């Protein structure tokens, strides 16, 4: 079968793609930027890529028409607190227009469980999208899931941040809300299981794991598995705004996503039945098993995708707009050093950020991350998905990877921290084995220029030390 996979570089899409390929399907990956889709050379003969933004004006001229089935995995919740529902509705309407020029027989949509009359904005938007997709000229299959637990999932990473960083929690009343978590492996099994299954045409199914838990029980079970002490002190009242700030400052989530999550956490999310399990003969694993499996992937550096790599969580929506570093009206700090072992220096560049840190004055980088959080930025807590692999579109703490070409020894980052301007950080090693490190800042107004000159002493100190340590062979970071 020829399958259209929308959101192919998203958290779910990156997990589903290998499953489709392993089962012999040809996959058309629909993405906004093909540079953000890391592909295995062994499978590229069965993968084609089409660049399309479903939120923009429909242009079907170059869109493939010989599609047998499609997965609709487009969500916009992390991008806005106000109009993400409008964006999701517009995207689904445009998706139907694209499907109208194809031979698609089935569309599979991953939605959220909606079993209350009064829904959060997030779940209401999911339901609206479902209604729009049902108007399409194809057979629709809807899977409704609650919290997805797996390495790199937003729910897992938030629970992980809370339990690992806060042994004592003053928690809001939504910790009593009941939910039914499901492991990412089971979500993928269900998504693939309904493909080309006529019993699932024009049907909506709730999918969940075997456990119905409160948020408090989820935190306690996680802490028990990890051998952590956890004390939770419930408070009767905590406003949604305070709850959002609480999540934002403690976890790696953005403020926009925190607001939408808190709005949804007030709603019980429990599957109404398990009829799809019986149709497909799938037995979901428990919440505890899902947590243990997630850590197996983390410990083996096998995390395929992470919610933090979503572009909508950051400042930019299109890498192409920023990949050309501006030359005029900019302020620069350029450092050049000769390297004796370019391969080891390249390894250091490709390991930058996350637990490795930034090679010099890591405490100052952490302070800068904390200040960024105070002003509503992303901070340093996003880390990185893999310890030594980098792809365009990935997150590196409060930077976004714009370009990563190991063969040509070049890495280009764009700052997503709060700044009075725009900033790029570039590393490259030329043919003469010179390591060139360039920080570029395009200031916005007088305050932007003042910011740069105020930071000059720190830049001289930090960037100078950073390039020297990157140039060292087999550099190992030390706490400071």
Please describe what this structure looks like.
The chain has 13 helices and 19 strands. It has helices at residues 11-22, 84-99, 121-133, 154-165, 184-193, 215-226, 240-250, 255-265, 275-280, 287-299, 342-350, 362-374, 445-471, and strands at residues 2-6, 26-31, 47-51, 69-72, 106-112, 139-145, 148-149, 168-171, 178-179, 182-183, 203-207, 213-214, 231-234, 331-338, 395-396, 399-405, 410-415, 421-429, 434-443. It has a 7-stranded parallel β-sheet with strand order 3-2-1-4-5-6-11, sandwiched between helices. It is an alpha/beta fold and 480 residues long. The radius of gyration is 23 Å and the shape is globular.
Overall morphology: globular
- Strand content is 15-25%
Could you state the oligomeric state of the chains shown?
A: single chain
| Largest pleated sheet | 7 strands, parallel
Provide the spatial order of strands within the biggest beta sheet: 3-2-1-4-5-6-11
Radius of gyration: 23 Å
Helix content bin:
25-40%
Structural class: alpha/beta
Please give the number of β-strands.
Answer: 19
